[in-house]
Design goal:
Radius of gyration: 18 Å
Helix content: 10-25%
Largest sheet: 6 strands, mixed
Strand content: 35-45%
Mean pLDDT: 90
Strand order of the largest sheet: 3-4-5-8-7-6
Number of helices: 2
Low-confidence stretches: none
Structural class: alpha+beta
Shape: elongated
């Protein structure tokens, strides 16, 4: 299934992209980003604190324009950071992560020689309400994926 291959490739690329980075978790330790396909794992505690810091890679709508046309798949990257510092700079950390993702894919828009970044690509912060010490952001992406050809055509 092509969307799953895309999702796995994105998870692998993000792990490489952030291999040199650490962020604070809810136990006040500096740790690498947790990068999850589709959803956060099941809760082991009352809340999801153990999953921070994280990126989830969720694929959304797959669109086919016809049998011979290029298909596309939308992907939503969700970023979650824990930051209990009094200067309330968690949003800056989230923005740094989303812009690093944006830069990586804008400068190298081909993934696994099979997928190509399409547009629009948008980055945003979740700031509708104060969820401090948790901060969230999103990267919305669209990818060109291989289409599916008909196999039932009769040439008799």
């Amino acid at each position: 299934m092509t969307p799953f291959i895309l999702q796995d490739a994105l998870v692998a690329k993000l792990k490489r992209l952030f291999a040199d980075s650490e962020y604070m978790n809810a136990q006040y330790e500096m740790v690498p980003l947790n990068i999850y396909p589709q959803n956060l794992p099941a809760k082991e505690e009352q809340d999801d604190r153990a999953h921070f810091p994280f990126i989830t890679v969720r694929f959304g709508e797959t669109v086919d324009q016809g049998h011979e046309a290029q298909s596309s798949c939308s992907v939503l990257l969700s970023v979650g950071i824990f930051d209990e510092e009094l200067d309330m700079q968690g949003e800056r950390t989230v923005q740094n992560i989303t812009q690093r993702i944006r830069h990586a894919f804008m400068t190298h828009p081909i993934l696994e020689r099979m997928f190509e970044l399409d547009f629009p690509l948008t980055c945003s912060l979740f700031d509708d309400e104060d969820l401090s010490p948790y901060f969230f952001g999103y990267v919305n992406m669209k990818w060109k994926i291989p289409g599916i050809s008909r196999e039932d055509v009769y040439f008799g």
